[in-house]
Specification:
The complex is a heterodimer of chains A (about 210) and B (about 250).
Chain A (H helix, E strand, L loop, with lengths): L1 E4 L6 H10 L5 E4 L2 H6 L2 E4 L5 H10 L3 H10 L4 E4 L1 H5 L3 E2 L12 E5 L11 E9 L2 H6 L5 E6 L1 E5 L5 E6 L3 E8 L2 E4 L7 H13 L8
Parallel strand pairs in A: 1-2, 1-3, 3-4, 4-12, 5-6
Antiparallel strand pairs in A: 6-9, 7-8, 7-10, 10-11, 11-12
Chain B lengths: L1 E2 L1 E9 L2 E6 L2 E7 L1 H10 L5 E5 L11 H8 L6 E4 L5 H10 L3 E4 L1 H5 L2 H10 L4 E9 L5 E5 L4 E2 L4 H11 L3 E6 L11 H8 L6 E4 L5 H9 L5 E4 L1 H4 L14 H5 L4
Parallel strand pairs in B: 2-5, 2-13, 5-6, 6-7, 7-8, 8-11, 11-12, 12-13
Antiparallel strand pairs in B: 2-3, 3-4, 8-9, 9-10
The chains are: A alpha/beta (about 210), B alpha/beta (about 250).
């Protein structure tokens, strides 16, 4: 069973719609800690501000279950957009600590050139350094991004995808059972479908297995 | 490199899709669900649905229809029309709509922009601005789907929208809309050069060259196409269409 974690932020319906379209029916949206612990795989979505996200995770009573599922049970988890950012240590966007699963931090885009509008919004191409993931995606993979903050990984080996917007930034990371993507696969046509299919059917650990 | 977005902009009236010219004379062009399915197959960058009668009829969005539309959209989806409060926006986001477009509400109650973006982020709100030149060549802003003239000054209004938290601006010259004569580049350029948020150029596109002009000359981040997306050619029959990836690639040369 796949559980889309509902902590009160994020476009959960869109993810569910796309999973159904690619033939994955064993999926639920849940805010029940027991369901999170029973899940075979977790999806951590999120749209909005970093502190709002962490506050919701804390106040919804899901923090302990998330930590147990991901850090002890090693349940594979996919973070999407803000969900990915919450997996890091901290963000320039807020004061609260992140989940701290990945040794990384979140910074705000800053450009001297005003032609680079903020947020980085729209379709952009990514470079995939992980071979297994790369073969699972269509050629010249592109995805829909919308974000004003980006992730800096402290461990270069965690980076599996990069993208360029006024400079390179991390579009995807992976460590053990934890994977995160900055873009919205659920809004990225066949490219997003391939990525979600890869996560559901093949992802255990990019660096291991 | 970030790709400039080309966004079919579909007009909803009751349960059908319509296309207007200069915001008037709506012509029926088909069933919205069917059109959305075709745009999804064509892998469009993004899609926008505007209900052109909701505000004037003081009506809420048609949630049932929008729910069906959202379930067929595997690309970002924006909706505008009749949104007057936070609760309505929340309901739309729950259906799977990514962005709400505000027009009349942004003029009468700009605080709503802040209320929505504080919770859902700046990217969740597009403010749609409809403008027209008067006899002396000065731009004026209109509300209620282009039917009511306001006294707002365009330069200070867009600055205010940006500071209230608007994530994007959709800018349409009413006199250009549906005319196939190309967007108002002068207008687009004046807006893109004075705000830091993405601007969607609307109104008037009739060819790939027009889209390219809005991007390269107007510096728009995205272009909304209406007639081009629903008609074969000017004055010809209905055809749901979208430029091919190869055609759109020429925008970047």
């Amino acid at each position: 069973m796949i559980v889309i974690v509902n902590y009160g932020l994020g476009n959960l319906g869109s993810i569910l719609n796309m999973l159904k379209r690619i033939g994955i029916d064993n999926v639920i949206i849940s805010n029940d800690p027991d369901m999170l612990l029973k899940a075979d795989k977790l999806i951590l979505p999120g749209v909005g501000a970093f502190d709002a996200g962490m506050q919701k995770i804390n106040s919804s009573g899901l923090l302990a279950a998330l930590n147990e599922a991901v850090c002890i049970k090693k349940t594979p988890v996919l973070g999407i957009c803000l969900g990915m950012q919450l997996m890091t240590q901290c963000s320039e966007e807020g004061q609260l600590k992140g989940l701290g699963w990945i040794d990384a931090e979140v910074k705000r885009f800053q450009f001297a050139n005003t032609e680079f509008k903020i947020p980085h919004m729209g379709w952009n191409y990514v470079t995939t350094t992980d071979v297994k993931l790369s073969t699972a995606l269509p050629e010249q993979p592109k995805f829909y991004f919308v974000h004003s903050y980006f992730i800096t990984c402290h461990q270069a080996t965690d980076i599996i995808m990069t993208c360029n917007y006024g400079g390179n930034f991390v579009a995807g990371f992976c460590k053990d059972n934890i994977m995160g993507v900055q873009f919205h696969p659920e809004k990225s046509h066949k490219y997003g479908m391939s990525l979600l299919k890869y996560f559901i059917e093949n992802f255990k650990s990019v660096t291991g297995s | 490199m970030l790709q400039s977005r080309t966004i079919p902009c579909l007009l909803l009236k009751e349960e059908g899709l319509y296309k207007t010219v200069q915001f008037k004379h709506p012509v029926y062009v088909g069933d919205p669900i069917n059109a959305v399915k075709i745009f999804n197959e064509k892998e469009v960058d993004e899609l926008m649905i505007l209900d052109i009668t909701a505000t004037r009829q003081k009506r809420e969005p048609n949630y049932e229809l929008l729910k069906q539309i959202a379930s067929e959209c595997f690309m970002p989806l924006a909706y505008g029309g009749g949104i007057t409060n936070l609760q309505q926006a929340a309901q739309l986001f729950e259906l799977g709509i990514e962005k709400v477009a505000l027009n009349t509400s942004a003029i009468h109650n700009p605080q709503l922009i802040t209320e929505i973006t504080n919770i859902y982020g700046n990217q969740s709100v597009i403010v749609s601005i409809d403008v027209k030149k008067n006899l002396w060549g000065k731009y004026g802003i209109y509300s209620q789907n282009g039917t009511k003239k306001t006294e707002l000054d365009i330069a200070s209004f867009i600055k205010k929208l940006e500071s209230m938290g608007a994530g994007e601006l959709l800018v349409t010259n009413i006199d250009k809309e549906g005319t196939w004569t190309g967007p108002d580049i002068e207008l687009i350029k004046s807006i893109t050069s004075s705000v830091n948020i993405p601007v969607i150029a609307g109104g008037g596109c009739g060819s790939i060259q027009h889209i390219a002009d809005a991007i390269n000359l107007g510096k728009a981040s995205a272009v909304a196409i209406g007639s081009m997306a629903v008609f074969q050619k000017k004055g010809m029959g209905v055809l749901i269409s979208f430029p091919s990836t190869a055609e759109l690639a020429t925008l970047y040369q």
